[in-house]
Specification:
45 residues, 30S ribosomal protein THX, Ribosomal_bTHX, mainly alpha
Length: 45
Amino acid sequence: MGKGDKKTKRGKINRGSYGVKRPRIKKKVRPEIKIDIDKDQTIKR
C-alpha cells in the first residue's frame, strides 16, 4: 500500500485522480454585495 495503490489517498495523489478517498474541494458560492445608490454618502476630508 502506498503510491502505486489505486485505493489509497496517496495513490490517488500520485496518479492525479479523484475518488472516495480523495474528494474534490468545491468552491463556496458567495452572494454579490449590492451597493445602494439611494443612501446619503458623505466623504470625510
